[in-house]
């Protein structure tokens, strides 16, 4: 079981491929994202093995397999071939975390494949998550876990320093990378993201040198010039709310990213009418305690005593504590209270919730197969919700104008 971070996943996949190719070992590589159903996955493995065990003329017919029981039977037949009989067959499953969304017997079956088939077979799982999130509740054989740690700060320093522009010295760019890692290493260790940040902010770091205000060795002055811009960039790590050209424009004009209109992700996502209300309801459910729903969303809630407990805990802003999970029932209750018209809990509403999860505007907390109701978190910012509410307000104003014009 290879449990690795995303920055090493492609490297490990290439390493495994080169290892099997160099030693001429019978192997099968399968991507679990491409084979998203049980039948596609099993047939992909069997057909690739069939191509290994037979000549091109003998393997023209495609193998069909619908159950894991059929897979075991067909696997035994294929591995009886002379070129596979006395060898170890390797099955490499890339993106193995997607196996959790398939049949419950699939993962335990792969872990016991050598016992079930009575063949020399090794199954290798490549994943970005830990084994504890894989382990089925019914129990299974424990695999050998091989953990690949993140790059150390020294490794990142060496890798990123190779990208220095030819017009500047290697020492100058290495000093810049050292400053960049000193700011971002605690919050981001993704090589791709750090490389993107290094390319994006390097022109601002070179600005005093280009203008003749400082030399390449004047690190103190260069640090003072780049420090506020790196702090701004740290607020949007991974988010990609604005493009590289827009970020360069912000640096030239010294504008706060939150003050620039039209650069929010809201402008790039066109949501249906009720999806906007669902997103607002999800934000209210994430950042407001459940005990305040009656006070906020009921017209005749009666008198509510403001106890010392309420006063004490309301002093802390819920935005500083982050979004909290909420059940689906609470989301729908808030939705019905903020929408003027009656909204029936149809499949259309539930499909729009699923679409918001797919767009990563909502996050599903827990696993899909949990017995109780699903719980969600709202992942958008307050500025995003304000922009959505502003769009809804403008549409309501347009409707009122149309009604007034019709009455005239």
From TrEMBL:
Origin recognition complex subunit 5 C-terminal domain residues: 271-390
InterPro entries hit by this protein: ORC5, ORC5_C, ORC5_lid, P-loop_NTPase
Subunit structure: Component of ORC, a complex composed of at least 6 subunits: ORC1, ORC2, ORC3, ORC4, ORC5 and ORC6. ORC is regulated in a cell-cycle dependent manner. It is sequentially assembled at the exit from anaphase of mitosis and disassembled as cells enter S phase.
Family membership: Belongs to the ORC5 family.
GO BP terms: DNA replication
Domain of life, source organism: Eukaryota
Function according to Swiss-Prot or TrEMBL: Component of the origin recognition complex (ORC) that binds origins of replication. DNA-binding is ATP-dependent. The specific DNA sequences that define origins of replication have not been identified yet. ORC is required to assemble the pre-replication complex necessary to initiate DNA replication.
Main location: nucleus
GO molecular function list: ATP binding
Cell compartment(s), UniProt: Nucleus
ORC5 lid domain ranges (all copies): 173-240
Record's protein name: Origin recognition complex subunit 5
UniProt KW keywords: ATP-binding, DNA replication, Nucleotide-binding, Nucleus
Cellular component, GO, one term: origin recognition complex
